[in-house]
Design goal:
- The complex is a heterodimer.
- By secondary structure, chain A is an all-beta fold.
- Chain A is built from no helices and eleven strands.
- In chain A, strands 2, 4, 5, 6, 9, 10 and 11 form a seven-stranded mixed sheet that branches. A four-stranded antiparallel sheet of chain A has the order 1-3-8-7, with no helix packed on it.
- In chain A, a hairpin with a 4-residue loop joins strand 5 and strand 6.
- Chain A is globular, with a radius of gyration of 13 Å.
- Chain B has no helices and nine strands.
- The N and C termini of chain B lie far apart (about 30 Å).
- The chains are: A mainly beta, B mainly beta.
- Chains A and B meet through strand 5 and strand 10 of A and strand 3, strand 7 and strand 8 of B.
């Protein structure tokens, strides 16, 4: 069974850095074509893709957020870590991590974690 | 404003068929595989269709996808009240070099 689960703070202050961890099981991030991405969803709004890291450490970023995002993987721990700097209230959203096994589709999603940005 | 355009809402009666459209351009839908996701209220999205028209294991054949040029459609037949959800299309955009999603379509089963 493949599962992913997001963890991290539920509340961050403006200008702070957000760090979220995606812990997964049931697959390996060293398998060819496999990747893990982060997608967020502001309350009542649509999905917004943020970033993606592949098995070979290749990374992709949303251009408008690239300067604020970092994504890393720890294959031995089955974890992917998202870092987003300079948080703003508009970054308030549910953050999902999800697996991709190629061709742009995310086949398994985590339950999501709600992050509120407020002073 | 989403790169992929979906109608905000659709509705139909139980047992009927509904079609949800998603339009894009040659840089996304026109030259890449498209996926569809179902998001039930308060839950994470779930993959319904991948590679334009393939269903993951466990997805009933009431759900089907098709593609023509720079548009795709999701058909849901034999509507059930449990199908009430938000539906999103998604694909890779070769020009933007990003994954792009549609704005979502809320399905109401009357």
């Amino acid at each position: 069974q493949i599962t992913l689960k997001e963890s991290g703070p539920t509340l961050v202050k403006p200008t702070q850095t957000l760090t979220l961890t995606c812990t997964f099981s049931g697959f390996s991030l060293s398998t060819s074509a496999v990747g893990v991405g982060w997608i967020r969803q502001p309350p009542g709004k649509a999905l917004e893709w943020l970033t993606l890291i592949y098995w070979n450490a290749d990374k992709r970023f949303r251009p408008s957020l690239k300067s604020r995002l970092t994504i890393t993987k720890d294959t031995s721990k089955n974890q992917v870590v998202l870092t987003m700097t300079n948080m703003d209230p508009v970054d308030t959203a549910t953050y999902f991590c999800a697996r991709t096994s190629g061709r742009g589709s995310f086949d398994i999603w985590g339950q999501g974690t709600m992050v509120t940005v407020s002073s | 404003q989403s790169v992929l355009t979906q109608p905000p809402s659709v509705s139909a009666a139980p047992g009927q068929k509904v079609t949800i459209s998603c339009s894009g351009s040659s840089s996304n839908i026109g030259n890449n595989y498209v996926s569809w996701y179902q998001q039930l209220p308060g839950t994470a999205p779930k993959l319904l269709i991948y590679d334009n028209n393939k269903r993951p294991s466990g997805i009933p054949d009431r759900f089907s996808g098709s593609k023509s040029g720079t548009s795709v459609t999701l058909d849901i037949t034999g509507l059930q009240t449990g199908d009430e959800a938000d539906y999103y299309c998604g694909t890779w955009d070769s020009s933007l070099t990003t994954v792009v999603f549609g704005g979502g379509t809320k399905l109401t089963v009357l």
